[in-house]
Design goal:
about 400 residues, alpha/beta, TIM Barrel, Elongation Factor Tu (Ef-tu), domain 3, eight-stranded parallel barrel, 21 strands
Length: about 400
């Protein structure tokens, strides 16, 4: 079995480092403009430079998103941005707009261009078109089945790569081209400002009865009619590989370090086992199923891969995530069993928490001491982003993740 690339999202420099350490072959990030996640922290030029250097030092590639659907007023800034990227030297730029492709070619010709899923890449002739433009990787539209992807693989040049999503949130609109956010809030999803109205609650109104709001099903709460389950293909890696997919992409450029560590580590183990043998893969699957459910998700689906989704792909009664574990922080400096972290969620003295390691092991440990920046001992750490020295009864290493079980 050919070993596919594992491509992991990163919303910040901290998360990029987590992705690299926990098993990514490549990471994709956004700069301060021209990507489709304007509300993510995103990377300043200096952070991008540091992140690219860190990834390259660990043999990991960096792809930068610039996949907005550009208007005239975007182009001058985009040209300057691509010139800046030329100096920073990421491994690839992800674009959707043909005009942005031209600007990238002109201003950073030495950097690979990948065509985003936003470009609606649904057939082999589209792939061939991009190949003729000098493009060597295209991201499949979400609406393709594995059968269709396999046919694309058979009808495109051997040196052309197929990238496809394997895990994460599913957009309700065709290839992510949503108009709801612009209509309701004036924030353009195709310019990175999506407000996720697909997660809101809706009722319907019959044309001849204005003002009479009808819930779509028998419940006074209404319905989350547009709310999709999350994609999860952890149990279908052999089928994904057999279809000829070269890069497995995880969605989630707004997610925490805990989410990124969980999906990166789990898919890393699953891919490595599948490449080794089907027996090794089947042996590790129970662990993978358990671990992948420890990051936030909305229930899982296989999307379009095995045919068109039906009503079971939607979630009609709520818009909340399932959250089994809570992110506490990433281990920075260590001295014996004392670690330094920037705290993200509350934990307390004497509490049993978990050390999550890149090698796949999880260690339970007790919090023996919490000391703040002023050297004061604390009974609990209730305020996010406090810088703390935490003493545990088990050793932890740089970049380990601290987490705890969510209350049931």
């Amino acid at each position: 079995m050919k070993k596919p690339e594992l491509l992991i999202p990163a919303s910040s420099l901290e998360v990029l480092k987590t992705a690299v350490i926990f098993g990514a072959d490549a990471v994709y990030i956004g700069g301060e403009a021209f990507g489709l996640r304007a509300k993510a922290k995103n990377f300043s030029p200096d952070e991008m430079r540091e992140g690219i250097a860190f990834a390259h030092d660990h043999g990991v590639k960096v792809h930068v998103t610039a996949n907005i659907l550009a208007h005239n007023y975007d182009l001058e800034g985009a040209e300057a941005y691509f010139k800046e990227l030329s100096k920073l030297k990421p491994d690839a730029i992800i674009v959707a707009d043909p005009g942005m492709v031209m600007l990238a070619k002109e201003n950073c010709p030495e950097i690979d261009i990948h065509i985003s899923t936003q470009a609606n890449n649904t057939n082999y002739m589209t792939f061939r078109f991009w190949y003729d433009q000098g493009i060597r990787r295209v991201v499949c539209a979400r609406e393709l089945s594995l059968k269709e992807i396999k046919e694309i693989r058979e009808k495109i040049p051997a040196d052309m790569e197929i990238e496809s999503f394997i895990h994460g949130a599913m957009c309700i609109s065709y290839s992510g081209r949503c108009l709801l956010s612009s209509y309701f809030t004036g924030r353009d999803a195709n310019h990175g400002a999506c407000t996720h109205p697909c997660r809101w609650k809706y009722s319907i109104v019959e044309e001849t009865r204005p003002g009479e709001y009808l819930p779509v099903y028998e419940n006074e709460r209404g319905t989350y009619i547009f709310n999709s389950k999350d994609l999860c293909m952890i149990e279908h890696i052999p089928e994904m590989t057999d279809a000829g997919i070269d890069s497995f992409k995880i969605e989630g450029r707004m997610k925490t370090a805990l989410y990124v560590a969980t999906v990166a580590r789990t898919y890393r183990k699953a891919i490595d086992a599948a490449v080794s043998s089907l027996e090794d893969y089947e042996k590790i699957l129970p662990w993978c199923r358990e671990e992948i459910s420890k990051c936030t998700y909305r229930q899982f689906t296989t999307g379009f891969y095995f045919g068109k989704p039906d009503e079971n792909t939607q979630i009609y009664d709520n818009n909340t995530y399932i959250n089994e574990y809570i992110y506490l922080g990433t281990v920075g400096e260590t001295e014996g069993n004392t670690v330094r972290i920037e705290q993200r969620n509350k934990f307390s003295l004497g509490e049993i928490i978990e050390i999550m390691k890149p090698d796949g092991t999880n260690k339970e440990t007790k919090v023996l001491a919490i000391i703040n920046e002023d050297g004061e001992e604390m009974e609990s750490a209730p305020h996010p982003q406090q810088k703390l020295a935490v003493t545990l009864d088990a050793p932890a290493s740089l970049y380990d993740i601290l987490r705890k079980k969510a209350p049931t």
